[in-house]
Amino acid sequence: MKIKVKKLHNDAKLPTHGHPGDAGMDFYAREDVFFPAHKKERVNTGVSVEIPDGYVGMVWDKSGISFNLGLKVMGGVIDCGYRGEIIMNMLNTSDADILLPKGHKVAQMIIQKFEHCDIVEVSDLSHTVRGEGREGSTGHMHK
Question: Is the predicted pLDDT of residue 138 greater than 80, yes or no?
Fold first, then answer.
């Protein structure tokens, strides 16, 4: 599969794959972004993408900046019809202010096939063993 990427600014960096066979495409900050402790910011990438029909871009954390810096992606569904700039909405979960420099990897996108669903209202759903059991329903998380 080929993904078309358009630079919206001359200094934008195209997404890359870190290693052959990596699922995620790494996206880069187009400018320095300052994250005060426990605050959210938007990170412009300076690029837009053309995701084919029947596919979606799922944006995920980069494990290094998530674990080491505490920067977490908020949201992350890029629909195939969207042609605007890829902007990463991120939250600084740490107690420290963080400066993410221009050109730094910020998040990764995985392209996945999806099924479009027709929504049908019903009065009952089929029964399962789990039923309405939520967190801890298997008995492993009881306090």
Answer: no
52 phi, psi to nearest 5 deg: -60, 155
pLDDT digits (tens, 9 = 90+) for 55-111: 999 999 999 999 999 999 998 999 999 999 999 999 999 999 999 999 999 999 999
Q: Write down the pTM of the prediction.
A: 0.86
Question: Is pLDDT above 70 for 137?
Answer: no
Angle, alpha carbons 102-12-9 (nearest 5°): 125
Query: How far is residue 66's CA from residue 95's CA, in Å, rounded to a whole number?
Result: 14
CB 65 within 8 A of CB 106: yes
Compute the distance between CA of residue 116 and CA of residue 58 in angstroms, rounded to an integer: 15
Q: Output the CA torsion 116→121→123→128 (10° steps).
A: 10
Domain 4-113, CATH: 2.70.40.10
Only one residue has tokens 């909405």, namely 89
List the chain domain ranges: 4-113
